[in-house]
Amino acid sequence: DVPKVPDSRGDSDGPRRGSLCDRHCAAINNVQGDLGDLGCHLHRPRVPPAVCTPSCCQQHSEEVCESCVVKTTLTAENAVEANKLSNNYKFGFKKWKSHVTARPWEDRSEIVKELYSDLNVIRGSGGSTLTFGNVLYLLLFGWWLSLLYVLVAAVMFVTVVGVPYGRLCWDLARYFLWPFGKVIQKVEVPKSQQVCEAGVGESSALLGGPTPRRWRPQCWAGTGYWQRAGAVAWLCLGYPVLALAHGLVCVTAWLLIVLIPVAKLSARSTSRVLLLPPERVLIRRLRMTEVPLEGEVILCCYSATNPYYYKYAVDGINVFAVNLLPLVLVTLVLGYVDSHNHLTGSAVKFTLALLSIMPLSYYIGMAIASISAQSNFAVGAVVNATFGSITELTFYITALIKGSREGNRCYAEVVKSALTGTLVGCVLFVPGLCMVIGGIRHQEQRFNSRSAGVSSALLFLSVGGVFAPTLFSKVYGKLVCGECHNVTQNPLGHYLCHNCHFDVMDNNGTLYYSHVQPLVYTVSLLLPAAYLIGLFFTLKTHSHIYDIHISDCHMPGHHHSAVVHWSRWRALVILLVSTLCMSACADLATEHISPILTNSTISQYFIGVTVLAMVPELPEIVNGIQFALQNNLSLSIEIGNCIAVQVCMLQIPILVLFTIFYPTNFTLVFSDLHVYASMFSVVLMNYIFMDGKCDYFQGTVLVMVYFILLAVYFFAPSPSGC
Fold first, then answer.
1. Of 156, 645, 605, which is closest to residue 421 (Cα–Cα)?
2. Membrane spanning segments where (predicted)?
3. Is-contact 335 53, C-beta < 8 A?
4. Which of 9-18, 73-82, 267-276, 344-353 is the least confident region?
5. What is the pLDDT of residue 327?
6. Contacts of 409 (CB under 8 A, 6+ apart)
7. What is the pLDDT of residues 497-532, one digit of tens each?
């Protein structure tokens, strides 16, 4: 490691324009910033000339300033976003990738701008419209939507007064069969008297061609009576059917995400095209040699699909989280209305409840990040400490309560398996997967080994403290076996025993209540104290180990005032509502998990360490992958380490404290499999992270070891008593 440069931030009188040395520094620290595409100038604090000479930065070689090795420079558009970026590097704070403020429109790429377009822009020829996505539209929606328009057109022709709308539907039938490369335009209609006087051969000065045929029925209409009658017939017979069909197309296409342009097409057709008078709607096919059209363009679509819509956000919320939100409502309604399983079984309700936890975890994470970014350090620390583990704790506590009411020890064992699965998954799977995905794009990735060392030390301490009562019970406990058989038929011979475990409840629980339980309470007090010391160490006395500098981003002509997606009060309301919904979903999951544990041939260990442990962490895994793709592996590793440390130092002590006020079957004595898997995972992780750099091979090793442990849990017998 390069020696630390004396801190010179105190005598810095202003930012200095980034040079070649700065770019080398950013490459070494593997931090390109979350906003690398802004094109902003990077700034950094002044460095003493005695340490970093100008010649060092001016030489076009691989040599860089040694003092720059430990610096990390990030860019942000505004103070709120800068505060969020800074919180990502603080120990104990939730790491959040998405923006909490609206990004300036001029700073976005053309790909992102296209995602938010209203399909009313005419652009140059972009090639053939015969693409896979457009053919998919034809097979899924185009043919039956066009047929429906033909049927509605026939109905409107029968009504006589609706003939103009019938002709409109006939033209729209051809349009929606293949809308690509065509344009729907709102035009100004000449006075009906002028149209009648001009005759059939009159040309339109607006379009430069023959007058559209749909304008001519107004000549025979004579008065507005027939127009009103036609509109009434259209709104009663035609529009409701077509609006319902377009609504179905809109919802289906929106849920498929890549077909969101089709959803926009249907929504705009329902709200604009179908509500216009038929004489004001003009449908034309675009040609390469055609001059630009006059008048307002309502619809102009070139492609039915766009693979980049996974980036789409609604009010700062990712489209996946938006689409999964109705699942929460379905789960709650189905779970509490159909309590006797008349409509669906327990397996379906358990699956729905578990899937509903994912979007709720996302909303909780974004609410925490929004509140922390807009508040001071104290408020952010309290919010992160209070709600940072609320997702897991709600499930664990509801499971322990149900197990206590039913007198079933399986729930306590499932909670222990979920705790161990979260620990092992966040130590092996999360960083390993991030290394593999990030290593595919970047040949070698580096991270801050000093900050990772702090988390590793806390992880060693927490694992040792959590499993200390287990080791104590194995040393002083009594070995009890379920059944034993005499192999040699000799009373003094060898016995073969099954289902053996160390019992700490022998002699009316003297060993447990006199020795093990006091040790559990002691550990549960020491672990949170160690967590607080770690916070004070990393955030106060030794915050320089992160050395994060948030630079200003000033671009000429751009206004970068913070426009937050969620205000503090709105984020607080969403946080509380999401927490309540999370508690309800956790209650439904524990209510319907009993048949799965009883009837399933899979070990309860495996269910706990996989499904119950990793599903709530999926939003965190996605954040880690996004950081790794941006060559910011430090945050990817910190995500896993932070969750693992919180499991041992916060969640388990809280569960122990909960058992004091509400007695349950939960004891801090784990099985041998949990102890060995956890300790081996922590040792392997520290060995991999020792040199501060990694590649996809090391990530593959971590992932493979994780899957090996999953195979062990899969073939392991169920816990005793289940």
1. 605
2. 135-158, 232-262, 317-337, 343-365, 377-398, 418-440, 452-472, 519-539, 571-590, 602-622, 643-662, 668-689, 696-716
3. no
4. 9-18
5. 92
6. 403, 665, 719, 721, 722
7. 666 666 665 555 567 778 888 899 999 999 999 888
Beta carbons within 8 Å of 307's beta carbon, 6+ residues apart = 258
| Residue 457 identity | A
Asked whether residue 461 carries a pLDDT value surpassing 80, the answer given is yes
CA-based torsion, 285, 286, 291, 292: positive or negative: positive
Closest CA to 637 of 78, 155, 241, 88: 88
Rounded to whole angstroms, the Cα distance separating 545 from 720 reads 47
What is the C-alpha separation between 439 and 433, in angstroms, rounded?
Answer: 10
pLDDT at 204 over 50: no
Cα 353 from chain centre: 17
How far, in Å, CA of 99 to CA of 315, rounded? Answer: 11
Count other C-beta atoms under 10 Å from residue 582's C-beta: 24
Q: What is the helix (H) or strand (E) element at residue 621, kind and residue range?
A: helix 618-629
Which backbone phi and psi does 184 adopt, to 5 degrees? Answer: -110, 125
Q: What is the pLDDT of residues 295-309, one digit of tens each?
A: 788 888 889 999 999
CA 612 vs CA 353, 411, 617, 702: distances in Å: 11, 12, 10, 21
Question: With contact defined as beta carbons under 8 Å apart, do 644 and 508 qualify?
Answer: no
**Per-residue pLDDT at 502:** 63
Q: Which of 132-141, 168-177, 281-290, 325-334 has the lowest average pLDDT?
A: 281-290
Whether the CB-CB separation of 389 and 651 falls below 8 Å is answered with yes
Q: Please, which pLDDT band fits residue 259 given cuts at 50, 70 and 90?
A: very high
% residues pLDDT > 70 (the chain):
75
Tokens (6 digits) for 166: 């019938």
The residues facing 495 across adjacent strands are 486
Q: What angle do CA 689, 694, 700 make, to 5 degrees?
A: 95
Cβ atoms within 10 Å of 381's Cβ, excluding its own: 18
Given the DSSP bridges, would you call strands 281-285 and 182-186 parallel, antiparallel or unpaired? antiparallel
Instruction: Report residue 706's pLDDT band, with 50, 70 and 90 as the boundaries.
Output: very high
Assess contact for 608 and 413: CB atoms under 8 A.
yes
H/E element, 495: strand 495-498
State the average pLDDT over residues 633-654. Answer: 87
Q: By C-alpha distance, which of 193, 191, 178, 138 is closest to 283? A: 178
CB 539 within 8 A of CB 660: no
User: In Å, how far are 11, 211, 214, 216 from 189, measured between CA atoms?
Assistant: 71, 10, 10, 11
Q: Which residues pair with 284 in a beta bridge?
A: 183
- How many of the other CB atoms lie within 10 Å of CB of 294? 13
Mean pLDDT of 272-276: 90
Of 690, 657, 644, whose CA–CA distance to 531 is shortest? 644
**Stretch (H or E) spanning 43:** strand 43-44
Please state, in angstroms and rounded to a whole number, the distance separating the CA atoms of residues 58 and 21. Answer: 8
Here the tokens at position 589 are 């999951």
**Residue 635 pLDDT > 90:** no
- Residue 330 token pair: 């379905």
Q: Is 266 exposed, middle or buried (0-12, 13-18, 19+ CB in 10 A)?
A: buried
* Residue whose C-alpha is closest to residue 574's, from 394, 383, 399: 383
Token pair of 268 as six digits? 């705009």
Average pLDDT of 155-173?
A: 91
Number of Cα atoms under 13 Å in the Cβ half of residue 262: 32
What is the pLDDT at residue 454? Answer: 76
Structure tokens at 304: 């039915």
Residue with tokens 């290394």: 435
β-bridge partners, 73:
549
Element at 375 (helix H, strand E): none
- The three-state secondary structure class of 694 is strand
- Minimum mean pLDDT range among 108-112, 223-227, 496-500: 223-227
In this structure, the strands spanning 16-17 and 495-498 are unpaired
Averaged over 580-587, what is the pLDDT? 89
Strand partners, 283: 184
